[in-house]
Here is the input.
Amino acid sequence: ISPSNTIRTGTSAENLRQAFLDNLVCALGRLPNYASAHDHYLALALTVRDHVVARAVQSFEQGVVKMMRRVAYLSAEFLPGPHLANHLLNLGIAEATREALGGIGIDLDRVLAEEEEPGLGNGGLGRLASCYLDSLATVEVQSIGYGIRYEFGIFDQVIRDGWQVEGTDKWLSGGNPWEIHRLGIAKQVKFGGHTETWTDDQGRTRVRWVPSIVIKGEAYDTPITGYGSGTCSLMRLWKSEAVESFDFEAFNHGDYDRAVEQKVDSENLSKVLYPNDELHRGKELRLKQQFFFTSCALQDMLRLVAMSGGKVAAFDESWAVQLNDTHPAIGVAELMRLLVDEHALEWDDAWAITQKTFSYTNHTLLPEALEKWPVELFGSVLPRHLEIIYGINHRFLDEVRTAFPDDDARLARLSLIDEHGARYVRMANLACVGSHKINGVAALHSELLKKTVLADFAALWPEKFDNVTNGVTPRRFVALANPGLAGLLERELGAGWPGDLSCLGRLEPLAADPGFRREWREVRLANKRRLAALIQERTGIVVTPDSLFDVQVKRIHEYKRQHLNLLHVLSLYLSIKRDPDAGVVPRTFIFGGKAAPGYFLAKRIIRLVTATGELVNQDPDVAGRLKVVFFPDFNVKNAQHIYPAADLSEQISLAGMEASGTGNMKMSLNGALTIGTLDGANVEIRDAVGAENFFLFGLTASEVSALKAGGYQPQTYYESDSLLRETIDFIASGALGGDPDLFRPVVDNLLHGDPYLLLADFRAYLDAQQRVGELWGDSDAWTSSSILNVARMGRFSSDRSIREYCERIWNVNAKPSQT
Ligand code: 26V
Here is the structure.
């Protein structure tokens, strides 16, 4: 096929308009006069989908023909954001489309705003997976992102009476034009039952898994286009269904009810995404979800090996499989099972293939987040995998004994089975043993990994450990989110800049150009005006676009310390109340983010933000100087409006806690200055933009360890700092939110324990905020710093990250970068 000269895939405005109208009438059954904005969206989506799918099939065929090593990115979460605008950008048809619709009185931006995003992830980890599929396509590497097609993604957040209320995400209810249900691609996944041995015709003893239930996985494909590239990535998500053909034991015995129950259970498997909890809970359904999508993915990879004429015994030459955290780590045991039990390979050969195939990315140091499953539960869901894990462990521990004789403590720590008390399967250990490479997501994080949670593995296999600092796609988070800035960049750097962020460096001299600084400020002010209008629409709060927009948007968690930010806000409020002439620059504090539904303190912190807003926003004494906003339902779509309007990016996690952060990159790439600790990728951002363009404060990770080891006492800070004391006393006084006990848990947590050392960092944070205020007062200096931030952030493009994975971990060839 030659996509450019068919009516469905022509790229002129006339062609696009005709295809759009055809889709409206023929596919949706709407006459133009009666069409709603949503009909317009669907018709345009179908139009663009034709272009996307035509590319995707060609790209896929290339991969099959050339038998290239492909990348499988296994991830329980993806957060792609709205697709339509992204495809228009990547295909280079945004302007023609605007013209096509404009000609019939339809506003493209209005149409784009109709799209609901797939919220199939919690936050950073899922968004990273989507940035990586975008970059894989852009650097022209064949890839499939495998995951779960949750019917209900991350909950919708509304704020009612100041509290977070969760609503059901219904991302599929308006129809999903971006996916193709692959009726021909279905996999059977077994659960439960028992194993038995049998003898094959070569006289070998083999193992057969007799499950108690079989569930079907059906593939739904969403193509992901690359920027200016013919290559598409595929996001292949699995939906669980009941297997009609399976001989239910229950059904055979006439127990119809139980058979129906099993059908419901089967379909429930992919129903809902688990929201991150404040700790890992060993929920059976979650283990089943993980095995379900991982097994479907590996079976699918084996099918594709056969399809392109490859050999199972050379599986690793066809596929590089990345484990996005431990969620798909069960894949190590599943690939062994497929190779040994189903394809009759010898154990040692299968193990060599497995280790060459997998690599593992760790995304958190928090011990309470590490996944482990009670052995009993694990064995009842996956009896054969438990045997295989014992087999792997047995051989592995022999290897350890050779390297470290007579070290039982080490053996116990490295074992795939935790045997301190109740026995657990440790998924991080399984991922480490089954992979040839293990990486952290920022330089500091990768170093700390080797010193803490994975120290024993690092001692055993130092050569397996590596770092790949996270990155973000400049297409979505700069070109689409910030068209004003994109215009300036295109003028100064040429139209291809989103494909090569190393060219951003050429902006540096313009930081000293007064004319350019003025244009820069105008772009930023326009972004802030748009956000101000959105804030008013969503919250009713009126904010001033020329105030400093001080932004903290991310999941709500104690370690991220949104409440430290609030201590600053309240200290400013009290300072102005005490002294109306206090030198406080006008600021708008913008918070956003979801709290896990079961995370009590996180929900209280949201309430503390809204209560602070209720107090501050209506107090005439601080009018024109302080505003506090909680922007509801922070998601990719809303983020695209918020990041470009941030003047100050709050990255204030306790050092050593945030693995990388990626919001930090998104805001700095849009011209925000960062106030932050030496945590995660902040360290590298500061190195890149220059210490003079970054507001650093706080304890370092090693100071944190030392302080904790010495017996941290928050009270001493409370007693010695009168402003801190006044601020905390104010929260404790009951002046906020109407109920004197409302914030007692927050105050108690800080005064008796303070696990994330807010009190220790409070004074340094306020000092850094003071410096922020001073620089803001010098508009030229601020703007120049903002320009330098953007000019020096090029290395945080996810294209750079992906090239590093390709070179050092996957051993596949990426399109070389321009420079
Ligand atoms: C965090 C927590 C925290 C408390 C205990 C329960 C729990 C469970 C899961 C998680 C999230 C872990 C995985 C994750 O999302 N990590 C994030 O990955 C991003 C992409 O690499 C990175 O930028 C963030 O710093 C990291 O938190």
In short: The longest strand covers residues 213-225.
